[in-house]
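Protein modeling request. Please complete all fields; requests missing the sequence field cannot be processed.
Requester role: graduate student
Desired output: 3D structure, token encoding
Chains: 1
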Amino acid sequence: MTTGMRWEMRTLKLREIVLLSHGMAKELSVEDRAHFETMQAFNRGKIPEHEALAKLRPLASAKQTENPLALFEPMSTDGWHVKAGLYKIDGECWWLVGVTKTSRTVSPIEQAKLRGILHVLGGDIDRDRLSTLTLAELVRANIPFMWTWKNTFPLNEMQIKKGPEGQPPEDSRIVPVGTPLPEGYEILDFSSKNGLLTPTLKN
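Delivered output (203 residues):
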């Protein structure tokens, strides 16, 4: 991400790139799904803390599952280090966002900035968190803070206009899936290779 961009612009660019990676998103494991659903129920006031902890204990001792994210796109701004990606539940895309901080304290202004970042990505700082600890407690302990929520944005695709043989494309654009192709343009498919977006032309 370009460091000179304002945080709103950087976050919008992060959102655009993550929504481009939907073809690489993998189904969430049964254990991770149970964990996420329990935390969401607690943070939305549907179950008390003791019930949430009772459900989480056996999940914590279960075998570690594979990282559900094929891509974790990074962004840093104003002391916050943000990573975001998509996974799937029953074929539908969900966000998973992890945040760490360079210092062990968090001011009201910094927390408001983080609230804004999550809002641009589609999440809520309180409702969608995956912890029973507060943000300040996690920052002091230098523990990554995680959020998850169901995607509500249109997914993206990249359209390119091929250049002469052996030359780079004349033009490329990221647009919502299903956007009509202009004459001379093709769609790029993306696959995961070492956690990077790897494009191939779509036949």
